Amino acid sequence: MARVSQDVKRRRYDSAVRADRAAATRRAVLDAARTLVLEEGYVATSVAAIARRAGVAVDTVYASTGRKPEIMALLVETALSGTDAVVPGPERDHVQRLRAADGARAKLAVYGAAVAALGDRLAPVHRALAEAAVGDPDCAALQASIAARRRSNMLLLAADLRATGELRPELDDDDVADVVWATNSAEFHGLLVGGRGWSTQRFGAWLADSWARLLLA
Fold it and tell me: Does the pTM exceed 0.85?
């Protein structure tokens, strides 16, 4: 019986070690891909170049992250989550804090700060995706799906704000979603933070204040 128990523990240990190694490899591949795509551009970045920078074989890149469009998708998702993992929207920390916040202004303050922080990570990746979408149908489809998902999320935000009873009565959920969708974009972040040198804090506070002025009674 003791022997069986030791074998089970050994298998569990070996499985945990393999999982840790696989996660480290995936992280190295994504770090290499992010650096190359942002510095050299999507088109100029080959899977072989990613493999060389990550110190792994080309087959390992494919096994751990997939083809280039799939790598691009992972770069977007990890920029959104701020971690090495893909985190569904409802499980992200700022979404949970937004839903728990008391009142529309508090919700908008949470979301403004989150959008500003996300933009610092996400805007460069979105620019690379826009470049990739020009000549890569898979990346074009990814870009379209991200835009559609972001619009759907803004409708959920509009519903959260409406539940507070503080929205301007003449605005419907589509109006609210459109305003937030346009101003939380990576392009808008690039104009003020990247182009005009606004700090992350200033941009987040400005977003929250602007949304409150535009949307709330």
Answer: no
